[in-house]
Amino acid sequence: MKKLLIGLALLPLAGCISFGAEVPESLLSLTATEQVPVGQAQSSAGARTVTIQVPTVPQSLANNRVPVQATATDVAYVKNAQWVEPPARQFARLLSDTVGARTGRVVMSGAQSLADPGARLAGELRTFGIDAASSSAVVTYDAALVRDEGAALEKRRFEARVPVSVIEPAPVGAALNQAANQVAGEVADWVGR
């Protein structure tokens, strides 16, 4: 009887206890507009290879939230907007799909590259969020490319800005996806030359 009374007393508290942040109704993800067709075989015997590393990110991007640069020194986050996984990993995958589709190169992951790394692309995803002053999605990627073993390191900054109508999850996700694909296309053209 005592256990039953304790259980009944704790029952109203059950709705107040939370063991983590509330998950939004949907999560944002990136989708490459250019991909290697399903079933297409690739071989390093007939094509050059490239290893694409997950970019480094500043602390504001080291999570699953979408940053908004409110002022030059203030960062906020879009309410109820979360990525399905950190943007750096999604952007690396989008780059891999785009570079493979546009250049015909065999894109390798870090583990696969031990056999034949080919060209190596690394970089920093400096901006991947919303600029409140211009109401635009901004993707800035500082790329570093070594085309062949022993070759010089080449660096280049890529940036895309896409207007966003309202700072809410759906339009922000669509604009960032478009900007990320634009940057990935420019990077692929640079790697492929």
From TrEMBL:
<keyword id="KW-0732">Signal</keyword>
<dbReference type="InterPro" id="IPR005586">
    <property type="entry name" value="ABC_trans_aux"/>
</dbReference>
<feature type="domain" description="ABC-type transport auxiliary lipoprotein component">
    <location>
        <begin position="35"/>
        <end position="188"/>
    </location>
</feature>
<protein>
    <recommendedName>
        <fullName>ABC-type transport auxiliary lipoprotein component domain-containing protein</fullName>
    </recommendedName>
</protein>
<feature type="signal peptide">
    <location>
        <begin position="1"/>
        <end position="20"/>
    </location>
</feature>
<dbReference type="Pfam" id="PF03886">
    <property type="entry name" value="ABC_trans_aux"/>
</dbReference>
